[in-house]
Amino acid sequence: MKYEDGTEVLLHDRVDLGGGMTGSVVAVFDNGSYTPDYPKEHWGYLAQGALVKSSEMGLVYFPVPSVDFTLIRRG
Predict the structure, then answer these.
(1) How far apart are CA 28 and CA 34, in angstroms?
(2) Whole-angstrom Cα distance, residue 75 to residue 62?
(3) How many beta carbons lie within 10 A of that of residue 19, not counting itself?
(4) Strands 14-18 and 21-28, sheet pairing
(5) Helix (H, G, I), strand (E, B) or coil at 25
(6) d(CA 50, CA 39)
(7) What backbone phi and psi angles, to 5 degrees, belong to 18?
(8) Digits of tens for pLDDT over the chain (75 positions)?
(9) Which of 18, 25, 37, 44 shows the smallest number of beta carbons within 10 Å?
(10) Do residues 2 and 63 make contact, with C-beta atoms less than 8 angstroms apart?
(11) C-alpha dihedral, 52 to 53 to 59 to 63, nearest 10°
C-alpha cells in the first residue's frame, strides 16, 4: 500500500487520519508486515491495505489509500 503521494506505507509509521486524529500503522497487508500485537494469524485474512491503531478511533482498517491518511513521520 502507498500513500496518496506514492510513498510506501511501513509498519510503525505515524499517520494523520484527518480531523485532528492520528495513529500508528500496526499491519500492512500488501507486503505481509505485522507487529507482534496484531499477528498474521489474526489478521492475515485481509489481502490489501493497512491497519492503524489510533487512541481516538481504536483500530481502523484502510483497504485503499485515502486523502485523510497521510504520513507524519516514520516510526
Answers:
(1) 6
(2) 18
(3) 8
(4) antiparallel
(5) strand
(6) 13
(7) 85, 160
(8) 999 889 999 999 999 999 999 999 999 999 999 999 999 999 999 999 999 999 999 999 999 888 788 999 998
(9) 37
(10) no
(11) 0
- 33: cell is 508486515
Q: Are 26 and 35 in contact (CB under 8 A)?
A: yes
Q: Which cell numbers hold the place of 45?
A: 485474512
> Residue 18 has which C-alpha cell?
484527518
Residue with cell 486524529: 21
Closest by CA to 23, choosing from 32, 33, 38, 13, is 13
Q: 60 is written with which cell numbers?
A: 481502523
How many Å apart are CA 12 and CA 34, to the nearest integer?
10
CB 38 within 8 A of CB 46: no
